[in-house]
Model the fold of this input.
Amino acid sequence: MGSSNGIAAIQARIAHIEQIAARFTSVAGGGGGTRLGFGKSDFATSLAQAQSGLSGAATTAPAGRVVDATPPDLADIAAKDPKETAWALDLLGRLGLPKTRENTRVIVAWQLSEGTEAAFNPLATTRDHPGATDFNSVGVKNYPSYEAGMEETIEALRNGLYDHILTALAQGNDANAVGRAIEDSRWGTGGLVLKVLRTRV
Done:
């Protein structure tokens, strides 16, 4: 009873917040309020992604996915970078890799080191996808949805060039080892992940 009214109230609240956010974005010249890797995603999607990393229970995230609550030992990472943490846990889960603190630290650091505002593309991949557009001159893509960006990131990591990164992540116990694997790869991030690991996460 009352669930329809409750859902309607939540939707109305989200719409109201989106209107406020749109005004701030307009004043800032567009994109001023975006966080790394999530581009111009709508507020409801961004909120769902953030909540998926902070909720005390399973949370429904974009496209109806159910994302597990953040483990207690990741609470400090999630508090600093909620969306990045939620995305890291989702990526690790889909890759079938351990969702350890060290793996989460390095995937969050990787996102931060890329420093991109390309839509739904926190690791700045260049793989094409229907509806994707170029974010920059080197071919980093803006993806049309969260799912598209996640799919292409996974495909990029599994294309045979980055097996040493996946192997390091499979160990799950050394963020720096993964950072060194990224530095030694063709991904293009260089040593920035290691630098972020030392200074932030």
Notes: Residues 19-36, 40-44, 50-61 have pLDDT under 50 and may be disordered.
